[in-house]
Each structure stands twice: as C-alpha cells, then as structure tokens.
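Same chain as my last thread, 292 residues:
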Amino acid sequence: MKMNPVYRQETTAGSRSFKLPLVILIFNSILALVALLDMYSMISQVRQTAEIQYSSFLSLYVFAASVEFVMLLFLVPAMTAGSISGERERRTLNLLLTTQMTAGDVVIGKLAANLSTILLLIVSSFPILALVFIYGGITILDAALLLLCYVTTAFLTGSIGVFCSAYFRKSTIATVASYCITVLLSLGTVAAYELSGVLGHDSGFNGSSGFFYLMLFNPGATFRSVLSSQIGAGNEIADFFPWLEQGPVSFVSEHWMLFGTVTQIGLAVVLVWLAVRKVEPVKRRSAKKTEH
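reply #2:
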C-alpha cells in the first residue's frame, strides 16, 4: 500500500524537529501538575478528617480528563489551521498540485499528519489518567471509550482547522475562524438550547426539542456523556440539560455517545470534502466534469 507522500513528509519532518518533544513535554507537564495538585488536596483532606472518600479519586479522573479535553480543543485548531494556508503563504501549494498528487492527497495528508501527533499526545497522557486505576472505579473499557471520544474530538476540530485553512489565505485568519467555529459548536449550541428552553418555559411552548438534537454536534456534550456513564451519574445527558424533562427523552438521549460520535465524524468528513473541493484547481475540476 502506497503511503501518502504529504503525510510521510510531514511526519518525517515533525519527528526530526524539537517542536514535537517540546509539545509532548508541555502537554503532559500541565496535565501531571493538575493531577498531582488535585491528589495532594485529597491527601491533605484525609490527614485532617482521617476518612478516605473513594469518590474523590473518581473526581481526580474527571478533573484530569476534563483538563485534557479542554487542551485538545485549544491545541488541535492551532495545529491544523495553518496546514493549507501555510503552503499558500510559502507559495508551495500550486507546486504540490502540479505533481501527480491530488488535492485530496494534500488535504488528507496534512490532516493525518497532525492527527497522528495529537494521537501521540493522547496516548502519552494516559499513564497520568491511569492513576485512578490504583483505587478502582475505572476499567480498561472506560479508558478505551474516553480514547475514542478524544480521537473523535480531535478529528472534528482538526477538520475544522483544515477547512478554515483551505478557505482563508492567511494562517492567522484561518486560526481565528477555526477557534470561532469550535467555540460555536461547544458553547453556541448550549446557549441556543438554554435560550430555547427559557423562552419555551416562559411561553408554555416547548421549543427546545430541535435544539436538543443540535447538541449532537457538540463535542463537549459527548464528552460529558462519556464521563457521566463511567462514574455512574445517572442519565448520561439528562443532568446536563435542565430543560430535558420538557424535551425528548428518547433512544438518542439514552445512547448519546453513539449518535454524537457518528454525527461529529459525519460533520468532519463533510468539512474535509469541502476543503478538498476548495483546494482542487479549477482546471482539474473542469477536466473531471468533461470526462464524465
């Protein structure tokens, strides 16, 4: 099987640079510092009360996992937003497209190279999250589900970054746009749902049902669903949305991670396809239409 040349070049150059080890060091140092400080506070509480609350160790897992999730939301768009626009700024994008490589090879190769780095960050951080394994409560299956959630989030936010990088010529503008879209998906959908719930409550009309399904695009809702199911916090999604009792409690809400993951992967695939269409030269696109 032939390896994508862009992916091979990007991963080779990245593995030889000092940037990758430095990013891994900073990423895991922040996560380890947060976990150790949280554990220190729990130990101090044990010394004062002489009581061990094992639920506190689950709180450590939730806190560390949440910090890592937030760091991924901020890190991935920054890494991918300059992938295509950076080639434009260096005036090398047209040179790449004059070779036998297609626009899909360029876009997918850039995205795959960045995602491989993110996957390395995620895997390298799992020993820190595994601290809670000492005290029980979290299984290997739970860790695998969390890994799947992280990978899905990285794929979605990475696709947003590549999409913005293809549509904007400047890396700075592409980075800002990718952050805006990420914030819109993470916080804007929650704000829309909450607003519809408040207005529906005041008017006596339930207008939050449609916005409830819009939350499937929110990676934060899926992440919350995963953690809630792992720590036994009751309904995966019900506690997250105060207006859910007025809205649809259905098969979708009971299997939120499945539907949320599929929806976000579908959105990511569409964004990658749009990025490929944008990068593909007009002449080559016209030639394909003529052949058909």
